[in-house]
Amino acid sequence: MIKIASGFYQNKLLGLSNGQGMMLVFDQKSGKPIGLLQDEGFLTDVRTAVAGAICAKYLAPKNIEAIGIVGTGVQARMQLEYLKNVTGCQNVIVWGRSKSALNQYKNTWAIPALLLKQPWRWIK
Prior knowledge:
By secondary structure, this protein is α/β, with parallel strands linked by helices. The chain has two domains: 36 residues, no CATH class; 59 residues, Rossmann fold. Helix content is 33%, strand content 25%. It has three helices and six strands. The strands form two sheets. It has a three-stranded antiparallel β-sheet with strand order 1-2-3, with no helix packed on it. Helix 2 links the parallel strand 4 and strand 5. The termini are far apart. The mean pLDDT is 84.
């Protein structure tokens, strides 16, 4: 399997995802290409969020007061989605560049969210 991923950060202006990607799957015996997974970065997003959740499960303190999220994009949403499955934490602190994106992020989740204007005050 070969993974191809790219980042085109102006795509938002075109109504497209910033990340594009695909995976080419090969037959394990012959090496012949047998499949193309054009997931547009979804598997990469899931893998990254799962990796964060695994790290939190084994390395984070047992009692977490709040989960800190920098950003409001796809990774910010997926990180929280997977982290809340491995921690008992019910509070989130979020920083984002856009107030409307912050409010949309907060409304997506049924847990309390503190929206920050200056994240460096909370980072320890």
